[in-house]
Amino acid sequence: MRIGVDIDGVVCDSYPLWLQELNRHYQKNITAITDYEMHLLFDVPWDDMNDFFVKNVETLLGLPQPVKGAKEGIESLIRDGHEIVYVTARTPEEKGVTLKWFEKHGIPFEHVLFTGFKSKVDMVEQWDMKVFVEDYMKNAKAIAAVGVPVFLLDASYNREDTAQGVTRCHNWEEILAGIQTLTANE
User: Fold this and answer.
1) Smallest Cα–Cα separation from 78: which of 48, 39, 107?
2) Neighbour count for residue 94 (Cβ, 10 Å)
3) 61-90 tens-digit pLDDT
4) Using one digit for the tens of pLDDT, what is the confidence trace for 109-124?
5) Residues 6 or more apart from 166 whose CB is under 8 A from it?
6) Sign for the pseudo-dihedral over CA of 21, 47, 92, 142
7) Which residue range(s) make up the domain with 57?
8) Structural domain count, the chain
9) pTM here?
10) Cβ distance 173 to 69 under 8 Å?
């Protein structure tokens, strides 16, 4: 089965480092990211925050650790015969630092698709993905709306009610169990 997997917040534990660096840059003391639209949380224009990310891309995308259990979970899925396709809102210009991060942490990758903040639904349909792992509720709902089951990795910024077709998971063990159940029911 072809499985779509987001990167930030699902495989790469980006948000703790981002929170630390954004607090330092904007001289704030925000303790948790409660809104996926972080520029709103920090009360700055989107362009300003985007400029900060562009100027600090090596640190912000290269230094985070993997999400606990992600590497082992992905390796398990591949061993079980599944194909993993990473679909990220990162831009094509961030490909180098992204692939270097995967290599540094020994996380297997073959296909990495960079949407550059565009909808992931087109990639999901184009690549005929049968399931998706995501952390951003808006993406999860949009992907589920086209009939692709989504496993949403729980986070402080996605606590609103889940939609039909979206299953909230608290860790990679729950994601793997959900995918196994789906596979068994096919």
Assistant:
1) 107
2) 22
3) 999 999 999 999 999 999 999 999 999 999
4) 999 999 987 889 999 9
5) 137, 140, 141, 144, 149, 150, 151, 152
6) positive
7) 14-62
8) 2
9) 0.95
10) yes
